[in-house]
Design brief:
2 copies of one chain form a homodimer.
Chain A lengths: L10 H12 L6 H10 L1 H9 L11 H4 L8 H10 L2 E4 L29 E4 L4 H6 L1 E5 L6 H16 L3 E4 L5 H11 L4 E4 L13 H10 L1 E4 L9 H13 L3 E4 L8 H10 L4 E3 L10 H8 L4 E2 L3 H8 L20 H9 L8 H8 L3 H13 L3 E4 L2 E4 L2
Parallel strand pairs in A: 3-4, 3-7, 4-5, 5-6, 7-8, 8-9
Antiparallel strand pairs in A: 1-2, 2-6, 10-11
Helix pairs in contact in A: 1-3, 1-5, 2-3, 7-8, 8-9, 10-11, 14-15, 14-16
């Protein structure tokens, strides 16, 4: 990941990434680790040849079934057919997964980071994820839940927050639709290939989302939705968001899995209460009663989840004056967590930029008032 | 309060108590303190004569307006006319106000303890209060709130809990009615005289409550309901209960005042959530979100408020085998807090029994397995 930024036109690298994105069932930390060490072309070659460096033999088992079957060109063509692209850690819009808890910004954390993402839509994933809230909930939602999901989303997108969800029936759809109606940005994370509309009844909704926002997935084109993929997908919903809000959830709702990911990834978690005799509020009430989730009454409560210190609704990060930055500088900004500081070594690790580039970038960013240094390291200016 | 228990037939004492109960606007700690020192007959005489012992001059100002106007016989007759009686700290059924936080079981705490209580109904106030939950809420309740108040109350009275409320429209009435329907015990605490039905539309409800449970008030017969009396009444609702549950409450609901009393008196506080777009749930959601109240989903949650250590629904205290105890022994049992221990001196103070009587009673209670001693003092057996 060091060295010059690969261009999208670099066909060899693009094919290598597409191969790597498909060669193991996500999430697969060993593939990410191997790419981090060898770069995509060498990593793909090593996996294909079943010959990997010492310390990376863990990559062999999860790739055994698919290593020899190269669907790369088919995947790229099918993606192209639906207007999708593959974005990778080498792309500027790769999101700041550094938002993962600092203590986990190690090899182990890569297990949660996707190898690459298939993306439809005009949005930039990094800016979309910079100020994003996940709004999830029951598929069998009530009209109360749909109404509340719509209201909360409407207020959030008015404040320039991106609303991320899973395009499912019920709360997910209510959130996406409200974001679209409010001309806000919304991101749908799929548990299937980018060329599949799941659920099929949401084909139009997904097309509408892809027209202004983003539809994303870590699964190669053609992949069908499956139970374990919903669970893996939920981790991306949480990881891309600065807070997760569950609007309605029954006792065993899938939304509770997204909530569990929020806790694991240290994302603030909120839940909307409802009537205590409503089965679709049981999960929300349990999370609030157990102290796992904060009670959410309105969009302000959600904003406070992200910014507990208050001071009203802060300007979301995407509205910061980072537009004129070079790729290197942007990468350094994105390497910094929303809270807390990083040392130079950590910024080098997270950003994947050489130490000299990082030092120069920090100096410029400091002058621009975008970062500051204290005895704990470098942090984003509030 | 030391010496033999005065009998209800002691007309002189009864008249003194009725005088004392009316001579100052409740709550009036100085009157309680004076009675504690002089006994009712001497305390009444001293107030009437405007001549009180050193250290008790604080009683003069709050009694100045009424000391010379003796309504005692009128009050006793009006109470008799509606089948009400006056119970006092000298009566066996005087509740265990010792449940007030231990640190406050001092003169200052008497400010919160009523001088005496006018009571209608066949219940014994001490046993009613021994396992009681206050169920309060908005007068302008929704059908959801009424339904929930009824359900929760129905479940609580099935488990032999007393449900205490204020006989107001809305949640209060729904709770009382459900308790009556479930043949459970319910207590209505009024902010007016025992001979007044407030609200007038609840005349039949109050009669029904008085038929099986209790209607109580610290206000003398003839007293009209007034804003400040509702606030003082709310303190008794909380003080008589082992937990307070707010079912619905708007932003400025009177139920929030009862909740404030619960916090002040160290009673566990619960609140029932509802739709976030319901104005009558705003107060409940605020208390839950602020961590002031526990989210209540069902009667089990309420029982856990009282007994956080769980183990299912415990036998309420009234079902303990205290029926065969002497008055002295019962008084000592009731002097002990539901949690924590008291030393002999404190038990003497709270029970108002001589130290020799307390020692004898404790020895018997110990043998019966009702109390136990450890290095912190005497405590109720769990």
């Amino acid at each position: 990941m060091t060295g010059p930024v690969p261009s999208a036109a670099d066909e060899r690298e693009a094919r290598a990434w597409a191969y790597l994105a498909a060669v193991a069932e996500p999430p697969c930390g060993p593939v990410r680790d191997l790419v981090a060490e060898l770069g995509p072309v060498e990593a793909a070659r090593a996996i294909r040849a079943r010959s990997v460096p010492d310390g990376h033999t863990g990559v062999l088992e999860p790739t055994a079934a698919r290593a020899g079957t190269d669907m790369t060109m088919a995947h790229l063509e099918r993606a192209h057919g639906v207007g999708a692209r593959l974005i990778t850690p080498d792309d500027d819009e790769w999101p700041a997964w550094s938002l993962l808890p600092l203590g986990q910004a190690t090899t182990a954390a890569r297990a949660g980071e996707p190898v690459a993402l298939w993306v439809r839509g005009p949005g930039r994933l990094d800016t979309a994820a910079a100020a994003a809230v996940a709004m999830v909930g029951a598929r069998a939602s009530t009209s109360y839940g749909d109404h509340v999901a719509g209201d909360l989303t409407g207020d959030l997108v008015t404040e320039s927050w991106t609303v991320i969800s899973g395009a499912a029936f019920g709360i997910d759809a209510a959130a996406h639709r409200s974001a679209l109606a409010g001309r806000g940005e919304t991101v749908a994370v799929l548990a299937c290939g980018i060329d599949r509309d799941y659920p099929a009844a949401h084909s139009t909704l997904l097309t509408d989302i892809a027209r202004t926002g983003l539809v994303i997935t870590e699964y190669p084109p053609g992949t069908t939705a499956a139970k374990h993929r919903f669970l893996a997908r939920n981790r991306l919903v949480a990881a891309l968001s600065s807070a997760v809000v569950v609007v309605e959830a029954g006792r065993r709702s899938g939304a509770l899995n997204t909530a569990a990911w929020a806790r694991r990834l240290d994302r603030p978690l909120g839940a909307v209460p409802g009537p205590i005799n409503s089965a679709t509020s049981v999960g929300c009430h349990a999370m609030i009663a157990d102290g796992d989730a904060v009670l959410i009454r309105d969009a302000d409560d959600i904003v406070r989840l992200v910014h507990p210190d208050g001071g009203g609704v802060p300007a979301p990060r995407r509205q910061r004056s980072t537009d004129g930055l070079t790729d290197d500088q942007l990468q350094v900004v994105e390497a910094l967590p929303s809270r807390g500081a990083l040392g130079i070594d950590e910024i080098v690790f997270v950003s994947g930029r050489p130490v000299s580039v990082v030092r120069t970038a920090l100096a410029v960013l400091d002058l621009k008032g975008l970062v500051e240094q204290d005895d704990q390291g470098w942090r984003l200016m509030r």
